Batch of 2 targets.
Target 1
Amino acid sequence: LFGTAGFLLPVLPASCTPEAVDLHKKLWAQWWPLREQFELAPDRSFPWTFSGNRPANHPQRRVGALSVIAADFDTFKRLCVARHTEKLTEYLSSLTHPYWSTHVTLPSSPSPRPMALMGRDRILDFIINHLLPMKDDEHAWKHYLSLRAGQAGTKVLSVHQSLLGGRPDAHAFLAKAWHHQALLQIHEDLCSLHSCAICSLLRQMEKK
């Protein structure tokens, strides 16, 4: 996973900790026989975004979390059903790794406290964006509508303020996960293409 992601450089920075050197040595030894088959050509490499992310959300930590899930994929697959989302959340929240629970990148210094490989908000994103939409049934839909929202992101808050900020009950429209998804969809369909000054939806909301 790390090799295909493009994260395994032959030589680490000199500032790396002994733990990072040991992990890199182990990964490189496993990667080398697979490199010719699984290394991506430059024009197919992943366009990772490293700026603007919280340190704990660094793509290397995400791949680290994925490696833990892949190692126990049968358990993960068994829990990926609409009626087991609470158990799935508990399982993903409990994931640990000897290195990635305390590091944000391969060459970084260790954190004084362990960090969750997957936080509650990211788990909720996975459930509402991937798991529940796969289940085309009434139970999955009702469960989707019942889910409480996690922390609102910048895009959600921006659209919410533009459309609903003047309403006395505006905060109620941030309570559910589907509220956030609806606001994100408005952002993708309208806000990312037009300014508020020419937004027909905003004008309609003002009339009402």
Note: Residues 148-208 form one domain.
Target 2
Amino acid sequence: MRRMLPKWEDMKWTYSKAGVDLNKHHSMHSLAQNAIRRIAESLGVKLIEGNFTRLIPLNDVELTMHTDGVGTKSIIAWETRKLRVLGWDCVVGNVNDVACDGVTPVAVVDYIAVSSNDTEAVNEVIKGVADASLESNLALLGGETAIMPDLINGIDVSCTVLGIRRKNSIRGINAGDLIIGVESNGLHMNGYTLARKVLLGRFKLSDEVCGVQLADELLKPTLNYGKLLLRLYNDGLIKAAVNVTGGGFTKVKRVLGEMGVEFNVPEPPCIFNVIKEIGNVDWGEMYRVFNMGIGLMILVGEEEANRVETVINEFGLRHWLIGSVKGNGKLMVRLGNTAFNL
């Protein structure tokens, strides 16, 4: 007898069912880390471990290079021909990561792969790269455009940022330190494989969802936290920061060591509630995959929290006190009357 498959409406969606296994992803990272350390040891290069970057010393400064791509958000941009956001996001995603380690980004190169001789598409992406480079005071040093009809279906965009740090601004995290969450602008660049499976099984990109056209909601540009973070580090106000990207709230583990966090989070923006409800996604899975309206976490000592909030206000960003560091090594989230572990 043939086994009956569940209807789409009955699916309990996870990132793994959508095609992305975070455990496998972490294994891939481990393979890369082993190669990085092996090569550094062979060459006699000193590696300075950041939470989002690795740096090498050069005279009296430390240098890093960081690379990331826009991911499957590009599928929606390609279909709607709203491609400028891809250039913006590929730069800003890297800027946010390096700035979390107190690194000043100084230059960028881009890589654009397309499936056809689509000059207009490439031009729009480059405009987005230029917008973000100017916003972040980055020199655009060049890049590569590849036309690969046998390999690419649509477009893929990534960037690499060169950054410099004059001194290590990162301080140790202690139990009792506070976590301030800064607003995101929607999904930013992560979780789109799951979001597309859920949302596009029910809606068209032209449908209105959460009061806006779905395509516009999903193509909101990633917020640039670079200047905010560098201001806070230069003023000596914060201990560490977390760009909430792939892995969602579990990204905070990068700065915690053996410690944990008890989160008390605000109600997430509408689009995340829609994904959860129509995809029947567990709350824990939602907070392991998406930023849930918190694009940046800032870790501060209790005595510095008010000054940090004042600076965030100057940048016009909403923020919340979302948690405190605990000594138990666990990540626990409270959302209203609901509580769950990550």
Note: The longest strand covers residues 104-114.
